[in-house]
Amino acid sequence: MKNIVLTRIDDRLLHGQVVVSWIPTLKINEVLIVDEEYAHDDFMAGLIIDSAPENLKVNVLNVADAANYINSGDEDNNLLILSRNVENIYKLIESNVKIKTVNVGGLGYSEGRKKNN
Known about the structure:
It is a single chain. By secondary structure, this protein is of the alpha/beta class. The chain has one domain: Fructose Permease (3-Layer(aba) Sandwich). Helix content is 37%, strand content 21%. It is built from 5 helices and 5 strands; from the N terminus they run E-H-E-H-H-E-H-E-H-E. A 5-stranded parallel sheet has the order 3-2-4-1-5, sandwiched between helices. Helix 4 crosses helix 5. The longest helix is centred in the first third of the chain and has 10 residues. The chain starts with a strand and ends in a 13-residue tail after the last strand. The model has no long low-confidence stretch (mean pLDDT 89).
């Protein structure tokens, strides 16, 4: 199994705070974007991958492929898992991915979601 250092839910995915703070602080050298839509959108996946720092390995996979990738991988890299929603992380856990904690960032507004004060 891959060495999961951080699992984060953030609708912005790979953005400034993640690149400038989380990645260097946690010595991340691999990022896995888990997203059903973007995994099937070559333009968006390419945009995310191309926006990453040069020395950072980035994959954009759907939940099933991400679970297989994590569970069959070695522990050589420090992995950051990013997803835009809670459901994808829940599905990873259901697929026997060992996620101990989840860091929740920006979730943004979407249909059926309400803001609590």
